[in-house]
Each structure stands twice: as C-alpha cells, then as structure tokens.
Amino acid sequence: MSEIVAMLTGRIRSTTHEFAVSLAVYAIVGLFALTAYVALLYALGLAISQEYGPMVAALSIAGLTILAALIALLVLSVRARRLRRMRALRTRSTMAAGTSAAAAAMVPMMVRASPVGSLVAVAVLAYVVSRAGQRRSSDV
Prior knowledge:
This protein has 140 residues and is mostly helical. Helices cover 97% and strands 0% of the residues. The longest helix is centred in the middle third of the chain and has 60 residues.
C-alpha cells in the first residue's frame, strides 16, 4: 500500500515539476515576444514619423492597435456565443434523450399491464420523439 502511495506522490511531484518548468519557459518566451512587439512598434513609429511626422505616426499606431483589439474582442465574443449555443444544444439533447429513455423503459411495463396501456405508451413515446426532433430542427 505504501508503494502505491509513494508512486502516486512521485507522479504528482513530477507533474508539478513539469508544470513549473513549462510555466517558466512560457514566461520567458512571452517576455521575448513582448520585447519584440515593443521594438516593432518603435521601429514602425520611427519609419512613419520620418515620412509623415511624429503626431501622425503615434495616432496611426494607436488607431491600428485599438482596431486589432476590437477585432480580437469580436472574435472572442462570436466564439463565446457559439460555445453557449453548443452547450444549450447539448443540454437539450441530453434532456430529450433522458425523457425518451424513461418513456421507452415504461413501454414493457405497460404492455404487460394491458393492451390499452401499450397503445398509450406508444403514443406518448411517439409524441416525445417528435417533440425532440422539432426542437433540434428549429435550433439549426
């Protein structure tokens, strides 16, 4: 038993160590990328300012940066909306499957009880399945 605990503890320690190393490497890469981005903006500002002046250079860089940020927000918003729709569709699909399964489980019990009960059970099952199909086709 102690060997299993030691093995699991060792795995947790190695996973934690790997995570810490990966985090440090990504932090360094992020720092280098940020430095390159700032240098690129500085060089772009110098190039534009030689041609059009410092005010136009600063305003054009700021405007392009704001435009890029707004585009990124738009993409994130569209993605979040799509994910919400997918979650809602998955939830409705799961609920419909559960309802259909419950109705299908009732059918054998009702058939044993009476023929009229089986007719009612089949009608209920058909109704549930048709409603689930209507929800799916109206969501698309």
